[in-house]
Amino acid sequence: MSGNNGVPGRTVVTKATMILNAFAGDRAAMSLSDLARATGLPVSTVHRLASELVAWGGLERTDAGGYAVGIRLWEIAARSRRSHGLRETAMPFLQGLFDLTRQHVQLAVVEGTDALLIEKISAAQAVHTIGRAGGRLPLHASAVGKALLAWSPTDVQSRLLGSPLASYTPSTIVSRSALRRELAETRRRGFAIADEEMSLGAVSCAAPVLVGGPEAIAAVSVVTPAGETVPQKWSHAVMAAAFGIARAYTQHRPQPPLSARLTGRGTFPLDGTAVAETAGR
């Protein structure tokens, strides 16, 4: 279904997702004009759809009059098939790893050509990092990414190796042949390391979460300050946490839904007209 805003070939859903996608990266809040520039949509279209997204809860208004991502999106994302159950199962092991290291502990899954962080525990004094829960890290430049990539299907590896590898620091691996060797070594030793490859001053060690097959469903990592210790210092602890998560996940009992249903807000319709949820449906 196409909208009536003078942008042919784009449905209302496409335009709404363009608005939401504008908040990718580090954009915490955007003005109406910022959204129009980022999406290429007319200001009037952005205003209408953003207002409906606010009414639904997908966006929120800021004190400055702009827009920010709404918590309704988190509520829905928490039901993701790939994260619901995994995060809950992993949390005791992530907490144990954090108690041992008092450094950043991360849990990630593959999303496209990135590692998507679905959980992160940090201490106030931990080394500065750019990753955050809900954020993405490159597969080739982070330990958690390399752990996922080393135990990924061939097509995932081929897709990444078929594209230029971005450089983030002088230590980032940008050679395809060097990355292939690194992934082979990662599989041989059972864990991945990144030595200031993603950000200067930070090193990390990660291990795959393997559940009944050769492909990782997730990876867990520890990020520590560079120079204080070698990245592989925590390799045994990280691999033990990953193994514990995998074993617990295979024994995971179905959990009740997070709630009976999403309640209390209108649904976002395909035709751009707010439709109230019917009680008891």
UniProtKB/TrEMBL annotation:
The keyword Transcription applies. This is IclR family transcriptional regulator. SMART domains: HTH_ICLR. The lineage of its organism: Bacteria, Bacillati, Actinomycetota, Actinomycetes, Streptosporangiales. Keywords: DNA-binding, Transcription, Transcription regulation. InterPro entries: GAF-like_dom_sf (IPR029016), HTH_MetabolicPath_Reg (IPR050707), Tscrpt_reg_IclR_C (IPR014757), Tscrpt_reg_IclR_N (IPR005471), WH-like_DNA-bd_sf (IPR036388), WH_DNA-bd_sf (IPR036390). Residues 255-281 are annotated as: Disordered. Residues 10-71 form the HTH iclR-type domain. It comes from the Bacteria.
